[in-house]
Structure formats: structure tokens, C-alpha cells
Amino acid sequence: MKLEKHNSDILIVLFAGILWSFGALIVRNLENPSNVAWQYLLFRGVTVFIFLNIFLLIKEGKSFINNYYHIGLSGCLGGFGIALAAIGFIWSLTSTTAANTLLMLAVMPFITAILAYIFLREKVSMTTWVSIAIASVGIIFMAYNNTDFNDLFGILCGLLSSLGFAIFAVTLRWKKNTPKFTTVALGGLFCFVISLFALFFSDNDFTMNIKNSSLSTLHGFLVCFGFVLFTMGSKSLPAAELTLLSLTEVLGGVFWVWLPIFGINEVPSASTIIGGFIITISIFYYSFFTQKKRHYIGLS
């Protein structure tokens, strides 16, 4: 029974990663994406907030409101991290290739390890340090060979997105009783508020056309549904397996925007492929040597 549960949880987490991987394809189908980034984040943020609160209402009843009274500093910081991740992701995708953006997300476990070492005094193993060093070589190679300003800005925004997710992960380790789904919902609200202020002070329109607003809402729904599935499957899986399974978002996202049938046909550059290959090696190295520790990080 345990083996069947383990196998089914693997499939659930894999599917969550596949759902998230469509984010890059959705953004690529926007009309004038660089001009509607804040509007997109506005719609996506409110979608995440509404959907997750509906989910919590169904799951916990009206008592889900009490979660907001127990959110605390860790939940607020985690919500800010989620908002930062969303903002970095969109601005990265609208500035550089999907491959550059998604491969920056692949280094999130290592950024998490560094932040946990600094703020939580969690010991960082030699395996993790070696993996970080290997991944850094891949990132430097990609940045060095992408001399265009937009590509460099996009790579930095991709790293900012990874930093946001890492902040969220560290807050979960800091206060494990913090309501996780409520934290993600709060992240959607923060994303909405930050976008609202950005649009107000930049004197831009708050609305988008029907196509863009529909794509933004769809993206928000996929993010929420992915979180629900990830939570369901992550409880019985060790961190090493989750790290490997999370590659489905990265590899899937690159594949969807390349697949000619979707009409984007975005082919990664040689430097991106080589740098991505180095980063992938670091992930496999990390996962292989930490598999024996069976460290679980499931959400609840």
C-alpha cells in the first residue's frame, strides 16, 4: 500500500509540474506582453486569491477565515515571496527566452539552502555546496553568452523569481504551523496590490483586452490547481524526489514554446542549452546524493 501511495504521489506531483509548465506558453500568447506585464499580474494575483479562498471554504468551511488571524510574520513574508516570484517570472518571460527564465527557476533549491543557512542556521551539506557551485557555472555561462541587455535583465528577473520561491520555502521551515494555502492566497493579494500601485504611478490602464485577461485568469487557475496537487502529493515524497520532479515544469515549459504546433517555435540558443545542461547535472547530482537521507518537506 505504501508503494502504491508513493507511486501515485509521484504522478500527482509530476502532473502539478506539467500544469505549471504551461505558464510560459500562456505568457507567450499574450498580445504586446511587455506592455501589459503589470495588468497581467493584477488579474493573475486576484485570480489566485479568489480561487484559493474558494478552495479553503470548500475544504474547511467558514472557519478558514481564522487562518488569516494566525498568518503571522512568517505568512506575510511567505506571501511576499510568492508575489516576488510571480513578478520576477512575468518580467523575465517578457524580456528573454522561456528557456532562460525557466532554467533560473531550476536553481531555487540551492537559493533556499543558502537562505536557510543564513536565517535558520540550517546546516548545508557538502553535496549541496558542490551542486550550488555546478549550477553557478551554468548560470554564469548563460549570462556571459547572453550579452543583450534584455536577456541579462530577464535572467536577473528569473533569479528574482527563484529568490521569491526560496523565501516562501524558508518561511515554511521557519514556522511549520503557518497556514500554507492561506500564505499562497496572501501572495496573490500582495501581487494584486503591488501591481495596482505600479499601474497607478505609471499612469497606465488597469484593464486588458479579453484575450489577455482570459489568459491571465487561466494562468492563475493553473498555478492554484498545481499548488493543490503538489500539496496532495508532496507529503510522502522526500525533498530529493521533489527536486527532480520539479524539473517537469522547467523542461515542459521549454518544450511547449518550442513545439511548432503551438505556433511559438522558440528555439533555445546554444549557450542556453549548454548552461541548462550544466544546471540539470547539478540537480541530478544533488538529488542522487540526498536521496538516501529521505528528508520530507511536504506541505499541509
Question: What brief labels describe this structure?
Answer:
300 residues, mainly alpha, 12 helices, 76% helix, globular, disordered C terminus
Give a verbal description of the structure.
The protein has twelve helices and no strands. Residues about 295-300 have low confidence and may be disordered. It has helices at about 1-30, 35-60, 70-95, 100-105, 110-120, 125-145, 150-175, 180-200, 210-235, 240-245, 245-260, 270-290. The protein is globular and about 50 Å long.
Rounded average pLDDT: 85
The proportion of strand residues reads: under 5%
Bin the helical content. over 70%
Q: Kindly state the number of beta strands.
A: 0
How many individual helices? 12
Largest sheet: none
Q: Over all CA atoms, what is the radius of gyration?
A: 19 Å
The secondary structure category is mainly alpha
What's the N-to-C terminus distance? 21 Å
The low-confidence parts are 296-300
Tertiary shape: globular
Q: How do the SSEs run, as a string of H and E?
A: HHHHHHHHHHHH
Quickly describe the structure.
The protein is mostly helical.
Topology record:
Elements: H1 2-28, H2 37-60, H3 72-93, H4 98-105, H5 108-119, H6 126-145, H7 149-174, H8 180-202, H9 210-234, H10 239-245, H11 247-258, H12 270-290
Helix pairs in contact: 1-9, 1-11, 2-3, 2-8, 2-9, 3-7, 3-8, 4-7, 4-11, 5-7, 6-12, 10-12
